[in-house]
Amino acid sequence: MPTDIEPLARHPKATRPGEKIGLHHSMCYGCGDEAPVGLRITVVAGEGVTTTATMKVEDWMQGGPGVIHGGVLSAAFDEVMGTTPLLLRKPVVTGHLAIDYAKPIPLGSTVHFTCEILGGVGRKIYTRAYAHLGDPDVLVAGAHALFIEIDLEKHFAGYRDKAVHAGE
Ligand SMILES: CCCCCCCC/C=C\CCCCCCCC(=O)SCCNC(=O)CCNC(=O)[C@H](O)C(C)(C)COP(=O)(O)OP(=O)(O)OC[C@H]1O[C@@H](n2cnc3c(N)ncnc32)[C@H](O)[C@@H]1OP(=O)(O)O
User: Fold this and answer.
1) What distance in angstroms lies between residue 123's CA and the mean position of ligand 1's atoms?
2) Distance between Cα 96 and ligand 1 center (Å)
3) I need a labelling partner for 115 at 20 to 30 A (CA). Which of 9, 59, 102, 139 fits?
4) For ligand 1, atom 32, which residue shows the shortest CA distance?
5) What are the residue boundaries of the Thioesterase domain, all occurrences included (predicted)?
6) Rounded to whole angstroms, how far apart are CA atoms 111 and 109?
């Protein structure tokens, strides 16, 4: 993290604490409710620039035997942390993501995520998140990520014709 990182404030019109932050795309692997295969994670706004989320560990998420695949957990952290900057009303993409895997996570468990925005510099937004299985004092994983604010139209120009929509 840079030394000149500055605190970032919640946007006045951000999703209120306790409310769900809306989907960014119905077919998104992370949040989409119509994606044929996906994590279907719903991120809930917390106080300030924090969020929470939960994810049930389904059988198809197995690395194994009997535990979640590390890449699935990584995608879940990406989703939770990437959604959190919407509290700033800033669209972002992931620049860098680092995961610490502390304990195996069994199939059938529910992973609870907590995330906070640590601050930013220019277009860079730094986040941190933790995961537990119901007891916040027993962490099973942690993550740091750098997100970069983008101009949505420019970033996805040239890709939108490849977009997959539900029912097609
Ligand atoms: C699945 C898509 C989701 C899309 C969401 C749309 C918005 C919706 C909003 C919200 C809901 C979101 C929920 C989703 C959650 C999941 C998010 C994902 O998984 S996103 C997919 C994976 N990520 C990419 O595909 C990025 C690919 N990379 C790029 O497109 C570019 O590299 C980009 C935009 C990240 C930066 O490119 P530049 O040309 O705009 O800017 P430059 O100057 O290179 O970087 C800006 C600053 O960031 C630093 N930077 C960039 N990458 C870095 C890195 N890996 N490590 C450290 N610093 C890095 C640079 O050094 C620079 O810093 P200095 O301003 O000079 O101080």
Assistant:
1) 9
2) 8
3) 59
4) 95
5) 66-118
6) 6
Q: Quote the ipTM score.
A: 0.96
Ligand 1, residues at Cβ distance < 6 Å: 24, 30, 78-79, 82-83, 86, 91-96, 122-124, 146, 148, 150, 152
Beta strands in the chain (DSSP E): 42-45, 50-56, 92-101, 110-121, 124-132, 139-149
Bridge partners (DSSP) of residue 135 are none
Give per-residue pLDDT as tens, 33-65.
999 999 999 999 999 999 999 999 999 999 989
Backbone angle region of 120, left / alpha / beta, with phi > 0 → left and psi within -120 to 50 → alpha: beta
Q: How far is the CA of 94 from the centre of ligand 1 (A)?
A: 5
Q: Which domains does the chain have, with CATH numbers?
A: 42-162 (3.10.129.10)
DSSP, res 16: P
Identify the pLDDT of residue 24. Answer: 85
Is residue 83 predicted with pLDDT exceeding 90?
yes
Handedness of CA 121, 30, 17, 128 (dihedral sign): negative
